């Protein structure tokens, strides 16, 4: 598995004054960034860390979420 197969939800938080990243497949783990780009990078790094930790501990990785999108004609 690669980090690009997992999903990230990136939302602006007025309370925290930053973008907050949620990783649904990893028990809704969180990270953040001052900009959208920094938040996305932090999210990718955290996913890569989870993959490494799971493999080091001999744990099965979670299945990536699948979303079916319909594009209007």
- Number of helical elements: 1
How big is the Rg? 14 Å
Overall geometric form: flat
Strand order in the sheet with the most strands: 1-2-3
The biggest beta sheet reads: 3 strands, antiparallel
Query: What is the typical, i.e. mean, pLDDT?
Result: 93
Q: What percent of residues are in strands?
A: 15-25%
Class from helix and strand fractions: alpha+beta
Number of strands: 3
Order of helices and strands: EEEH
User: Uncertain segments of ≥5 residues (pLDDT<50)?
Assistant: none
How many structurally independent domains?
1
Task: Estimate percent helicity.
Answer: 25-40%
Give the terminus-to-terminus CA distance.
33 Å
Explain what this protein looks like in three dimensions.
The chain has one domain (3-56). It has 73 residues and is of the alpha+beta class. It is built from 1 helix and 3 strands; from the N terminus they run βββα. It starts with 8 loop residues before the first strand and ends in a 17-residue tail after the last helix. The protein has a 3-stranded antiparallel beta sheet, covered by helices on one side. A hairpin with a 5-residue loop joins strand 2 (18-23) and strand 3 (29-33).
